[in-house]
Structure formats: structure tokens, C-alpha cells
Amino acid sequence: MMLHVPVMLQEVLEALRPWEEQVCVVDGTLGAAGHARAILANCPRCRLVGIDQDPSALDEARLNLAPYGDRVTLIPGNFRDLSTLLPRYEIKVCSAFLFDLGVSSMQIDREERGFSFHGEGPLDMRMDSGTLSRGVTAADIVNSWELGDLIGLFRRYGEDPFAVPIARAIVMHRERYGPLMTTESLVALIRRTLPAPAQRKAGTHPARRIFQALRIAVNDEMEALRETLESLPSFCGDPSTVVFITYHSLEDRLVKQHMKTWAAEGKGLLVTKKPLVPREEEIRENKRSRSAKLRVFRFGPVPTREERRAARRKEGRSGGLPSA
Ligand SMILES: C[S@@+](CC[C@H](N)C(=O)[O-])C[C@H]1O[C@@H](n2cnc3c(N)ncnc32)[C@H](O)[C@@H]1O
């Protein structure tokens, strides 16, 4: 099983400096706590609040964060519910939020979760394994949605050029042979449907886009992200830093739009005018990082150029995040 390697870790740590500012850092996508552990190690005084909707991720994180004792609060839940989760745990002032979106390597590698087009598993894909949500699985969608809705889903969230033939093949299959229940059977159907040249197309698995679309729908990922971006300013202390790592253009576009709006409304500083991307070396070592884009926004009074230069001199560093 592959361990989850935290993506763009150095860039995340750099974005959260200066550490004296950090009172309480919320990791809204805790996973196995790769980022969280490094944050706690670098920030000796801050409290870390880790949220994840996957109970097995929280179990893993609990073990990994045990050395940090009561500096850590673990919260099972969806980050879209920040407004109810934070007060429940009496968290008032947050100095930073990190969202490393999507699924973890652990979730993908566990075939029984149904996220992987390489493995054999049930068509499930629920990040919370049904513990929090209404429990719609990928199989429910594949076997009950109308043709037009499947086409719309595969186009919108998968941006798949073969959305129409694949959706048609799914509907025909379930009418003739009954429901599709496993990842393997869906992959086989996609392979049968795609023309050979498309299958040979370099770099991507023929089922990648369809699996992405189903996963986004099952977990209502775009709506959860939109709601969170809309409510986030109300939880952010002054100053506070928000870091997003996204893995596909739909997510990235949404984050970019909101950060631009926050800047236009004078809520703070858009630190990354262009998203940061992983270094070549990181992509070589961790393939999962290749589509990552990192964006940072700092809520609070916007410092002048001179103030930002002085802060960087004080930090005693030459590189780091590009200033806006
Ligand atoms: C990419 S992994 C995070 C990995 C983590 N940064 C690390 O270094 O170990 C994303 C995690 O976020 C969780 N997640 C995704 N969307 C979520 C949501 N809306 N609410 C809560 N957790 C979510 C997933 O269950 C998964 O464990």
C-alpha cells in the first residue's frame, strides 16, 4: 500500500509563515495528517484542528499526531459544515486554513472503497463510507440516472470527450444485462466503448475522467467547495491565511474566482497571483502531485510593498512565495 506523501509541503509551510501569527490552524482535509504533522513540528505554540469526513483517515491521523497530545483536536465531519463544527468544539479564532482537496492515496489504494480504476472493488466512492451523507454510491448513479443526466455529469465533471458513447453504453448494458456493480465491470465497459486510438492516447487511463466525474458527484465535491469558499471569510481572523491545493481545473477555477473577489472587496491580499505548481523533482518522486495547484490568500489589512519587503527581510529569506 502506498503511503500518502503530502503534496507541496514546503510551499504550504512557507505560506503559513510567520509562525508567530499562527494561533490555531484548521486542516480541513486532514487525511493521514502529513501536512498537519509538519505544521505542528514547525509551529511550537499553535493548536491544530483536523477535519476529515473519512473515519478511517481520522484513525490514521490520530496515530500520526499522538506525539502532539492536546495541541490537536480531531473532528469527524465535512468541511462544508464549518459553521456548525467549529462552535461545537469552541473554536473561535482561526489564524489559518488548509484545504488539500480530493482523495488520499490511502483511499485510492483500498480497492474496497471503489475509487480506483486499477483495482477490483464495489462502485462505492463515498469518502465518508456512508457515515455522514445520505449514502448515494457510484453504483446508484451509474444504475439509476437517466441517459441525459449521465452525459451531463461526464461532460461537466469529467470533461470527457466520449461522454455520450460511454453513457449510452452504460444504459444499454444495464437494460440488457442488469446493473454494473464493480469498478472492474465499469472499466471493462469503458474500454469496450472507446475507439482504440483514444485508448492508446498517452498518459491517461481511459476510465480516469469518468471515475473523476462519479467521485465528484458522489461526494458533492463542487457544491461543498463552493459553500465553503462563500462562508470562509467569516471564520478568518485578522490576519489569517488560507491555502488551497486543487487537483483539477474545475476546483481551481472556483478557488481562483473567490480569491479574486475577496481581493476586490478589500478583504486582504491575493498572495499567489498565479498558482504555485510542484517542482519537477516532486512530480518525479510523487506522481500524484503532478496536477496540483496551490493558491494562497491572506485576510486582513493589505500591507504596502515596502512593508512586505521589510517583513521578508525580517524573516531572513530570499526565496519563498511570490509577493503579489
Ligand atoms: C488529499 S487528502 C489530504 C491529505 C493530507 N493533506 C495529508 O497530507 O495527509 C484529502 C482528504 O480530505 C478529505 N476530504 C475531502 N473532501 C472533504 C470534505 N468536504 N470534508 C472533509 N474531508 C474531506 C478526504 O477524505 C481525504 O482524507
Notes on the protein architecture:
There is one protein chain. The chain is α/β, with parallel strands linked by helices. It folds into 2 domains: 9-106 and 222-315, Vaccinia Virus protein VP39 (Rossmann fold), CATH 3.40.50; 134-218, DNA polymerase, domain 1 (Orthogonal Bundle), CATH 1.10.150.170. Helix content is 44%, strand content 13%. The protein has 15 helices and 7 strands. A 7-stranded mixed β-sheet has the order 3-2-1-4-5-7-6, with helices on both faces. α7 crosses α11, α8 (163-177) packs across α9 (183-193) and α12 packs parallel to α13. The radius of gyration is 21 Å and the shape is globular. The protein starts with 8 loop residues before the first helix and ends in a 9-residue tail after the last helix. The model has no long low-confidence stretch (mean pLDDT 92). The structure holds S-adenosylmethionine. The site of S-adenosylmethionine (SAM) has 22 residues, from α2 and β2.
Number of domains: 2
Order of helices and strands: HEHEHEHEHHHHHHHHEHEHEH
- Could you give the distance between the termini? 40 Å
The count of strands amounts to: 7
The shape, in one word, is globular
Bound molecules: S-adenosylmethionine
Main sheet overview: 7 strands, mixed
Assign a percent range to the helix content.
40-55%
Radius of gyration: 21 Å
Under CATH, the topology of the largest domain is which?
A: Rossmann fold
Mean pLDDT: 92
Note poorly predicted spans: none
β-sheet strand percentage:
5-15%
**CATH superfamily of the largest domain, called what?**
Vaccinia Virus protein VP39
CATH architecture of the largest domain: 3-Layer(aba) Sandwich
CATH top level label of the largest domain: Alpha Beta
Quickly give the structural class: alpha/beta
- Helix count? 15
Side by side, the strands of the main sheet go 3-2-1-4-5-7-6
